[in-house]
Amino acid sequence: MVNVLQNYQLPQVVTAIGGLGTAAFGLLEAIKPVIPWINHIGFGRIRRTVVILTPGESGAKPAMNALPQKKILQSLLANWVNGTDLASQKAIAKSLVKLHLTPYNASTLAASTNVDPVLLTQVATAMIAGAPPLTQPQSDALARFDLIVTAMLDEIYQHADQVYRNWTRGLAALLAVALAFVGGLSLVGCWHAYWGKPEMYTALLVGALATPLAPIAKDLSTALATAVNTLQLVKK
Questions:
Q1: Distance between CA 211 and CA 203 in Å, rounded?
Q2: How deeply is 124 buried, as exposed, middle or buried, from its count of CB atoms within 10 A (0-12, 13-18, 19+)?
Q3: Which end of the chain has fewer CB atoms surrounding its CB within 10 Å, N or C?
Q4: DSSP class of residue 35?
């Protein structure tokens, strides 16, 4: 077993395969400006939820000091595309949603967040008018509204982030397979001697392993080298 590991230099092979995965991730980052939709992956669900949380105002004038729904979505998309910290994105989204609350859309928003529509309308009216401090029932309604909006935004942002990471891993894996395939073909030098041959399947296997190994290649190669050295000592 030791001889097999030494002959194939398994730790070096693992490091090289991981390097291919890292290169695939780097190439994916490089082509994002050419294929903009990659940066939009995952934002669809955020958009749908924010649309629900920023309803229209039934013909009334827009709220003062608040962005219209279209501008809110553009702002959130810009933060998403630029990779702003997820916690900051959620905080910005919640602030924009709360600023969009008015007496005219409060009942619609209350239905979406399961809050008392009368109390939420009173809260919106008081906030805009700068009225005296809220009553206890109004404060409770505002607190429930804040908590529910926070939970809804946290869920969609976490889900969207997971979707984005899964998609980018998948795209990087496809790039790694393509790079390994072309690399194997360049080594053989002849299509007919490559297609369907063991060399081609080896290249495809290397490409498939590249992205999963990329984050752990260094640690795994070190562990394998340690295992080989340990087996050598035991054999002696």
A1: 14
A2: buried
A3: C
A4: S
How many CB atoms lie under 10 A from the CB of residue 49?
21
Distances (CA, A) of 214 to 40, 83, 224: 24, 21, 15
Whether residue 84 has pLDDT greater than 50 = yes
Measure Cα distances from 139 to 94, 118, 130, 146 in Å. 18, 13, 14, 10
Once rounded to an integer, what is the mean pLDDT over residues 35-52?
Answer: 92
Q: Provide the terminal-to-terminal Cα distance of the chain, rounded to the nearest Å.
A: 14
Please report which confidence band the pLDDT of residue 135 belongs to, taking 50, 70 and 90 as the band edges: confident
Give the CA angle between residues 73, 76, 77 to the nearest 5°.
Answer: 85
For 46, the token pair is: 């955020």
Half-sphere exposure of 12 (CA within 13 A, CB side): 5
Burial grade of 95 (CB within 10 A; 0-12, 13-18, 19 or more): exposed
DSSP per position, 113-156: HT--HHHHHHHHHHHHHT-SPPPHHHHHHHHHHHHHHHHHHHHH
* Contact yes or no for 221/11 (Cβ under 8 A): yes
By residue count, the chain amounts to 236
CB atoms within 10 A of CB 10: 17
Task: Tell me the average pLDDT across 40-46.
Answer: 93
Nearest CA to 138 among 109, 152, 118?
A: 118
Rounded CA-CA distance 235/39 in Å is 53
Residue 78 has pLDDT above 90, yes or no: yes
In the numeric block, the tokens 């939420």 are attached to 120
